[in-house]
Amino acid sequence: MTTEPNSSSIAVIVVNFGTANLAIAAVESVLAREHGDRIIEVHLVDNASPGNDASDFLRIHQERSWGERVTLWLETENHGFGRGNNVVIDRLAHRSDPPDYVFLLNPDAALENEALVILADKLDASPEIGAVGAGISLPSGKPVAAAFRFPSAIREFVQAVNFGPLTRLMSTSLVPLPADHPEGAVDWVAGAAVMFRMSILRAEKGFDPDFFLYYEEVELMHRIRRAGYQIHYVPRARVQHAEGASTDEKSQRQERRGRPAYWYRSWMLYYVKTRGQRGAILAGLAWIAGALINIPLSILRGKGPIMPKNFLKDFPRLVMLPLLMGKIDV
């Protein structure tokens, strides 16, 4: 592996679905920064947004304000997150002059500082690192978890039980790392603001197209780690994220909500691809066991259970039954 020069180029990709105003703000947060001597190109993918997101907002804004500074990709189907990014990644990989790095920015996120320079500098200096993630805060300024451990059966169990003494005893068995986690190597970082080496994305063929939404970035970073590269969290690079605005799935949401079928499928795919069918079954049983323990604990504490709404109906039907019957369809 060799270290890229300081004038390394960066392709920024924003994938939008139904949040044109936020996506425009995300793109403009990139255009407004200096980026040092980095060569920056910006790509905005519209995943066949409903209504007039593409034609009335993005296309007009691109023509009137951005010009050649932004390449607009108007797709005719909703590819989801990973495949939406792959639309651009695949094209970049086949160019004669591909960028050195690719930075993925959620449409509901915006740069707060020269994050691209900070992240690129980290990759320039450390050829053993394959991807770097920025620190993320809410619009209120509150920092949120942006660095994580890989999910596992024991972590599913501890999270599902949601019992303070157990959580404190097994704090290293939690997936999210603290919001104030220091800079350094981690298992994976938030896909809302992450920079990859283009050479690695090319070698790994980008995101796994079997995923529609959720867990695709975790699986990709699992492959990158398996290929011998490190993933680093770099909180000096700052990004503001209106968490979940583009998907209506917010981790800070207090009320219980059901999970869409594609979320459960992505959960299952992640475990099958990283731990095999038996590992996926074990993780599923661990989640169910933890959820069943959480029910009486929640009653005793006068609180509702932490599991998603309809979990005990949806999870066995959408995850455990296909796993046990071997009908995973991957």
UniProtKB/TrEMBL annotation:
Alphabetically ordered keywords of this record: Glycosyltransferase, Membrane, Transferase, Transmembrane, Transmembrane helix
Q: Superkingdom, according to UniProt?
A: Bacteria
Q: Which Pfam families match?
A: Glyco_tranf_2_3 (PF13641)
Residues that span the membrane, as ranges: 280-300
- GO MF terms on file? glycosyltransferase activity
**Which family, according to the similarity comment?**
Belongs to the glycosyltransferase 2 family.
Record's protein name = Glycosyltransferase
Task: Please tell me the species this chain comes from.
Answer: Paracoccus aestuariivivens
